[in-house]
Design brief:
The chain is globular and about 25 Å long. It starts with a helix and ends with a strand. Helices cover 23% and strands 39% of the residues. The protein contains two helices and four strands; from the N terminus they run ααββββ. It has 77 residues and is an alpha+beta fold. The longest helix is centred in the N-terminal third of the chain and has 10 residues. Strands 1, 2, 3 and 4 form a four-stranded mixed β-sheet that branches.
Length: 77
């Protein structure tokens, strides 16, 4: 099960990661790396950069990616 969960969570959007954890029967806690009201609130895509399991909760840390006009994505740090 863990291998499948890891595969489901690699480089996916926040919504996809939350869905994968919920399918695995875990409660989900999302931790944002940005500052409220900052650019991270307005970014185009949130990608999962790290996740870990604590008891029966999946904790996801997400970082924003800004979408350029060319379609390339640049991680926001």
């Amino acid at each position: 099960m863990m291998e499948r969960l890891v595969a489901d969570l690699l480089a996916v959007t926040r919504e996809e990661a939350v869905a994968a954890l919920e399918r695995a029967g875990l409660r989900v806690e999302v931790v944002h790396t940005g500052v409220p009201g900052g650019i991270s609130d307005r970014c185009a895509v949130e990608r999962v950069v790290r996740f870990y399991l604590r008891e029966n909760t999946g904790v996801i840390t997400v970082a924003c990616e800004l979408t350029r006009l060319s379609g390339d994505r640049k991680p926001f740090s």
